[in-house]
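Retry 2 of 3 after timeout on previous attempt. Resubmitting structure tokens to design endpoint.
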């Protein structure tokens, strides 16, 4: 299906270095969401946190995705005010919002732990029901248009597409998704406009309204 991203339930790619001795646990580890820029050979070059901090990445760290910008969750140690050493890295599924036809839409229920904006993205922390480590789930973000809000601005309406692809619900797997807001920077204004995110959960439809960042 076009414009639908694929998530393998077994996926969260943990890469890079591991702790080498008990002393490593005493270091000032940090955990942040952000974007990682990689070189043509896959070497990690820079990491920008959702809080706006930009770091060079210590040499030697490589990922499978080459010459691209990735959404990631990083566990790292600062080695200087402008550089870090990454201890572990998990890629996040990145969704590009697109209008979807009503008869193609699916919203298999899941658990929504959190929904927030950061780094120019809408971010979702989910627990996805599954019964098979190799089952594929499909995610997308349906753009449903704009409506007026009480502040005199516009509210962008988004709806999470989730196709469990016949998977069961024996347990739940933690999943993080990001939706790119870059296409709306010329259409929406911070402080005036907002985003409405609709997610079908196991307890019913959940609507979260966020200020446009």
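Retry 2 succeeded. Sequence:
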């Amino acid at each position: 299906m076009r414009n639908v991203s694929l998530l393998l339930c077994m996926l969260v790619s943990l890469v890079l270095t591991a702790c080498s001795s008990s002393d490593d646990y005493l270091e000032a580890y940090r955990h942040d969401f952000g974007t990682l820029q990689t070189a043509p050979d896959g070497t990690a070059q820079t990491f920008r946190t959702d809080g706006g901090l930009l770091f060079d990445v210590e040499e030697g760290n490589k990922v499978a995705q080459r010459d691209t910008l990735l959404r990631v969750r990083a566990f790292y140690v600062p080695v200087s005010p402008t550089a870090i050493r990454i201890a572990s890295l998990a890629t996040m599924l990145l969704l590009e919002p697109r209008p979807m036809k009503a008869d193609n839409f699916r919203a298999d229920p899941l658990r929504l732990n959190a929904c927030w904006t950061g780094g120019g993205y809408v971010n979702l922390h989910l627990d996805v029901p599954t019964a098979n480590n190799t089952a594929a789930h499909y995610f997308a973000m349906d753009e449903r248009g704009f409506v007026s809000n009480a502040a005199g601005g516009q509210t962008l309406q988004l709806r999470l597409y989730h196709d469990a692809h016949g998977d069961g619900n024996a347990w739940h797997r933690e999943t993080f998704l990001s939706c790119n807001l870059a296409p709306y920077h010329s259409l929406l204004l911070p402080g005036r406009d907002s985003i409405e995110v609709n997610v079908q959960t196991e307890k019913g439809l959940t609507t979260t309204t966020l200020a446009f960042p």
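Attempt log closed. The chain has no helices and 14 strands.
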